[in-house]
């Protein structure tokens, strides 16, 4: 008959902590409470089959979720109550040779460690269990009973022995024996003689546990801790050993990194914690769904808890709840997890071993079962089964007889730290009797083989005695059994290797992904740094040149005044290598494939200057209009014709800067034409100037170029529209400027800039008079210098 025991759930709400904002949306309701759950703050917490946890839906406060559990503890509950109600009855189950697992689950800071470990004044489940184990130890006079303890933590998905000093603690492998039992290899087990001795060992070991401070918990567990107390009961008369165990698991809490304020180390821990808890959820889900494959192997935590979830142990889940508002969603998650877990059915078995030497296998030997211990555990399991338990619980080990004698290694308790079996019960030199009841047991297979071999024995060959026939059959059965065992071992080994390979591939992939991401991030970082460096370099240069004028005036932005760089650049022209390179690059860029360049090549020097001036004038008109990108383009075209004009280069840089930084660019008023006779000393220049002066009002076209003067005269003579003759005379300019825009621009730019230059009042409006004069002087230079240099 199938013996099942559902995982039992106890929910515990911790009291409010100092500074915590708590509302009344999470309550423990006991039978007899009114509909508002007003009695949940009764002085004594309650334990009842019909208690439930009530949580108001955070999205719709009119809706209340109810989570009924066989045990619900409110914020006034004591450690003693929880122990008496839910834990103590399990002690006798342990002494009947069954494995019991109690685990505390909940969000970080919900009180798991408090419940399991407690404090000196309020000892939790662990110290109370050990005390009770010692108290019960001598009540089974037919057994010689000894207790031992092992303690491990799963930190970032690696298992460490907490009973050895941290420096010496290697990562321990999790393995599975051929009967499908999971165990931690080389985990030490320490015999204990008294509760006091245990406490000493435990306190020391707890200091080895990974604990860290987060925003939510000053001493937050960064690992899952599993303490196992094992009772070994030797029955001398029957020469059998009964092994009962209790696993006490303090899980690390699920974490929301936004709330915990985790740093990089804590984040890595948190990721491992959350991942293992998520796999735990998947395991529970798969068990509920009756999935063909349960993902125990996806984390070490679930592999180790395998026996407690759908395995062969009796399990109690203590669900810890935090009352704070900030935990509301986590509380709902925890309760949902608990609801799903309570449907999981385990099939507890009695772990009993026959220490007598193996009898010769006999095909017709009657199967001997350990009825006394089975009966004891069966009745105990029935006693602890709550209303949620599915039917009569009956532990059985149908193959104990079949296994008899073959597993005769006695557990070694002689030395103080002996690598021993832990959860699941099988160490490298110690065999458990627990066989999975859900189909994979080697023992069952052996039984069926035994049965399959039986028929030939019932038809003895003629001429052989009964003993001879029996011997032959026994030999055949032994051979078959050995072959089967070898096959199963090979299968397991293959499976294990495949799993290892798969994990290695996953790890490899993940590390490659991480490396690629890190490289990309580093490259991006370098690019950003380089950009920042360039920008600040550029900014520094400009700031230096602007240091004579305040950044802001009357709260409004003052853009970089044009021409302000002139003295500086002149002075440091040869030294400013970067600027030179940039200018050269700009020249190259615009020279390459530029029609203007080709045209400039065939123009005379004078025509080049004139065309350049024309472009400057147009560019200036655009910049005054705020159309900086077009202006920039025109200035660059002008540069094609007058590549050596330093003023022009400065202008281009200034406008580039303004465009790049989204700043306005306010050009100074158009400078007055210079008296060329004053500036120029060469007769050649004077002659050219004369020619230009003569042609000033006729807007001459020379070699297809349009002079700045022609545009200027058009501007001054026309208040609207575009001069058609200019269209004919300036084909190059028309290509860059639509007539309509040009007309607008003519209207807008018609202003008496000559007067402006000379009127102190106007200059004062912009601030510093001296500065203004200087600026305008330099402005003037940009355009006039074209003539001068020609
Ligand atoms: N029932 C309780 N009575 C009084 N204080 C409690 C109770 N439960 C928890 N606390 C207090 O709440 C705080 C957080 O509890 P605890 O460290 O046990 O949480 P935890 O769930 O183990 O957290 P983590 O997962 O981060 O380790 C502690 O200061 C603890 O003393």
TrEMBL record:
Ranges annotated as biased composition (Basic and acidic residues): 347-357, 530-540, 548-557
Sorted UniProt keywords: ATP-binding, Coiled coil, Microtubule, Motor protein, Nucleotide-binding, TPR repeat
Listed Pfam families: Kinesin
Binding residues annotated for ATP, in chain numbering: 106-113
InterPro entries given in the database record: Kinesin-like_fam, Kinesin_motor_CS, Kinesin_motor_dom, Kinesin_motor_dom_sf, P-loop_NTPase, TPR_rpt
Any one GO CC term of the record: microtubule associated complex
Start and stop residues of the TPR repeats: 612-645
Domain of life (superkingdom): Eukaryota
Listed Basic residues bias regions: 671-688
GO biological-process terms attached to the record: microtubule-based movement; mitotic spindle organization; spindle elongation
Stretches for region Disordered: 347-377, 530-562, 663-726, 743-765
Protein name, entry field: Kinesin-like protein
Coiled coil: 569-596
Lineage of source species: Eukaryota, Fungi, Dikarya, Basidiomycota, Agaricomycotina
UniProt GO MF annotations: ATP binding; microtubule binding; microtubule motor activity
Limits of the Kinesin motor domain: 6-344
Low complexity composition-biased segments: 364-377, 710-726
SMART domains: KISc
Family: Belongs to the TRAFAC class myosin-kinesin ATPase superfamily. Kinesin family.
């Amino acid at each position: 008959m199938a013996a099942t025991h559902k995982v039992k759930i106890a929910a515990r709400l911790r009291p409010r902590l100092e500074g915590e904002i708590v509302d009344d949306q999470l309550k423990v309701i006991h039978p007899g409470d009114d509909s508002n759950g007003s009695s949940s703050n009764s002085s004594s917490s309650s334990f009842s089959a019909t208690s439930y946890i009530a949580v108001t839906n955070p999205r719709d406060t009119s809706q209340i979720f109810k989570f009924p559990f066989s045990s619900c503890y409110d914020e006034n509950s004591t450690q003693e109550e929880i122990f008496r109600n839910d834990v103590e009855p399990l002690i006798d189950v342990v002494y009947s040779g069954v494995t019991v697992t109690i685990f505390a689950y909940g969000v970080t800071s919900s009180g798991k460690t408090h419940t399991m470990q407690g404090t000196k004044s309020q000892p939790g489940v662990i110290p109370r269990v050990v005390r009770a184990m010692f108290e019960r130890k001598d009540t089974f006079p037919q057994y010689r009973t000894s207790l031992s303890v092992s303690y491990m933590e799963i930190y970032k998905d690696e298992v460490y022995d907490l009973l050895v000093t941290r420096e010496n603690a290697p990562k321990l492998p999790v393995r599975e024996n051929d009967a499908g039992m999971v165990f931690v290899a080389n985990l030490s087990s320490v015999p204990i003689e008294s509760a006091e001795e245990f406490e000493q060992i435990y306190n020391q070991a707890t200091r080895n546990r990974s604990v860290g401070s987060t925003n939510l918990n000053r001493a937050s567990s960064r690992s899952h801790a599993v303490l196992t107390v094992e009772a070994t009961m030797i029955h001398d008369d029957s020469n059998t050993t009964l092994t009962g165990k209790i696993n006490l698991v303090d899980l690390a809490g699920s974490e929301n990194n936004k709330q915990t304020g985790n740093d990089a180390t804590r984040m890595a821990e948190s990721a491992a914690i959350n991942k293992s808890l998520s796999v735990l959820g998947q395991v529970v889900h798969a068990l509920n769904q009756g999935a063909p494959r349960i993902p125990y192997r996806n984390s070490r935590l679930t592999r180790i808890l395998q026996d407690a979830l759908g395995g062969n142990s009796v399990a109690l889940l203590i669900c810890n709840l935090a009352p704070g508002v900030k935990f509301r969603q986590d509380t709902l998650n925890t309760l949902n997890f608990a609801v799903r877990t309570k449907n999981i059915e385990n099939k507890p078995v009695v772990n009993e071993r026959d220490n007598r030497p193996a009898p010769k296998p006999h095909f017709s030997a009657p199967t001997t079962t350990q009825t006394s211990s089975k009966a004891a555990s069966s009745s105990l399991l029935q006693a602890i089964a709550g209303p949620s338990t599915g039917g009569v619980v009956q532990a059985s080990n149908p193959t104990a007889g079949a296994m008899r004698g073959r597993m005769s290694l006695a557990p070694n308790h002689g030395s103080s730290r002996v690598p021993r079996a832990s959860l699941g019960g099988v160490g490298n030199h110690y065999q458990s009797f627990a066989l999975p009841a859900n189909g994979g047991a080697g023992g069952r297979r052996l039984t069926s083989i035994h049965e399959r071999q039986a028929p030939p024995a019932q038809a003895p060959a003629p001429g052989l005695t009964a003993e001879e026939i029996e011997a032959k059959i026994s030999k055949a059965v032994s051979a078959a059994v050995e072959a089967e065992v070898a096959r199963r071992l090979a299968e397991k080994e293959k499976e294990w290797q495949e799993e290892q390979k798969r994990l290695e591939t996953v790890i490899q992939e993940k590390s490659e992904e991480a490396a690629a991401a890190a490289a990309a991030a580093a490259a991006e970082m370098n690019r950003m740094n380089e950009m920042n460096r360039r920008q600040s370099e550029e900014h520094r240069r400009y700031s230096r040149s602007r240091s004579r004028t305040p950044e802001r005036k009357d709260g409004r932005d003052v853009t970089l005044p044009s021409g302000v760089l002139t003295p500086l650049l002149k002075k440091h022209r040869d030294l400013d290598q970067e600027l030179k390179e940039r200018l050269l690059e700009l020249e190259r860029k615009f020279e390459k494939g530029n029609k203007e360049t080709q045209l400039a090549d065939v123009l005379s020097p004078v025509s080049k200057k004139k065309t350049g001036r024309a472009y400057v004038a147009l560019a200036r008109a655009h910049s005054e209009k705020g159309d900086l990108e077009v202006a920039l383009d025109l200035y660059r075209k002008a540069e094609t014709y007058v590549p050596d004009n330093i003023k022009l280069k400065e202008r281009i840089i200034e406008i580039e800067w303004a465009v790049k930084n989204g700043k306005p660019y306010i050009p100074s008023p158009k400078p007055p034409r210079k008296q060329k006779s004053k500036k120029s000393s060469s007769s050649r220049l004077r002659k050219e100037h004369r020619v230009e002066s003569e042609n000033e009002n006729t807007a001459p076209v020379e070699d297809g170029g349009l002079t700045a003067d022609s545009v200027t005269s058009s501007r001054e003579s026309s208040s609207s529209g575009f001069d058609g003759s200019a269209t004919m005379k300036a084909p190059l300019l028309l290509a860059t400027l639509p007539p309509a825009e040009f007309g607008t621009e003519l209207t807008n730019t018609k202003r008496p800039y000559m007067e402006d230059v000379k009127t102190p009042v106007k200059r004062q409006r912009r601030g510093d008079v001296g500065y203004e004069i200087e600026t305008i002087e330099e402005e003037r230079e940009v355009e006039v210098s074209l003539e001068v240099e020609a």
